[in-house]
Amino acid sequence: MSDNLKALEGWASGLLGNLDAKALRGMNKRLAAELRKRQQAHIAANQNPDGTPYAPRLPQMRKKGGRIKRKMFTKLRTARHLKTQSTANGAAVYFSPSANRLASVHQFGLLDTVNARHGIRHRYAARVLLGFSQSDDELITKMILNQLIS
Fold this sequence. Notes:
two-stranded antiparallel sheet, 45% helix, elongated
């Protein structure tokens, strides 16, 4: 959590405590949906949350020649795999259990099997799929302030 969010949590926790659970759930649901859209957008742009580009793909060792013409993680960023969860206490964006292993390998730059039949393993470059940027911090602040004002 960034310093801005910690400071916001300090002064807003008392004010948010005065709201009813239904209002908090609604705000957190909208917040989770907006954060998922932002995560999907930066994954589609092949960028880390801070705006730096992902490490490029490895050269392909396959029989079929040519280059791969699609972006990375096209299925991983769909709503089927990129889930949201919201309660009165918080909001979360996470990967479904079926996509979690693949996402973790790329998020943290782990060692994984490329080709099980041939036993080829590779350490992937870290590509931050889920993370906060400065604009995400500002979005969270705006949504909380709008909820307190209305």
